[in-house]
Amino acid sequence: MIKKALVVFLWILHLSALIGLALGYKDFFIPKSPFTLLYLTIVLWVCFPIQTIKKIGLFILCFVVGMTVEWIGVHTGSLFGDYFYGDNLGPKLDGIPYLIGINWAVLTFTSHAIAQSFLKNITAQIFGAAGLMVALDFFLEHISDYSGYWHFNGGAGWWNYACWFIIAAILHAVLAHYKLKGDRNSSLHLYAAQLIFALGLWIIISI
Hints:
Structural class: mainly alpha
Strand content: under 5%
Largest sheet: 2 strands, antiparallel
Strand order of the largest sheet: 1-4
Helix content: over 70%
Distance between the termini: 39 Å
């Protein structure tokens, strides 16, 4: 019952934000983004669930890797291109929002559970899950400037997506090695809510 309520409110958050943004209430909804990302994390921890030392350790690993590659990306431009983070993702560590590292972990866990449930071959699971992460990043890139999340000088190029895929695949290989298991249903909702929000907002700002 609690899991269903959490998932229902997840969709209420994302759909109400889309409606509000379509009506022109950007200044109200966009600054609330950190709270939405925190809620995503809560849903993952309860519904996945993350309740063992192994899962906690893997979550921390994904967080640390996410923060590290983003730091390298922002400060050297060698991974994802020339970009920097705005002010709508909460507190930062040397220019990198903590919530970006957390979202790396959330997205890695959810995409892994989704790919694992549909694909039997381990290699296919790794690359399929990495593909899911890159697909979501593709849509997020199209709303990041508008939302003040992050800003690319010259836009996100193919190198950004290639690096995302390689790093994601490495993380998924680690999760596969440690046989991470999670709830497919909640993972699908967590992934779909972010994807539909990004796609919906891209359509709104393109009209």
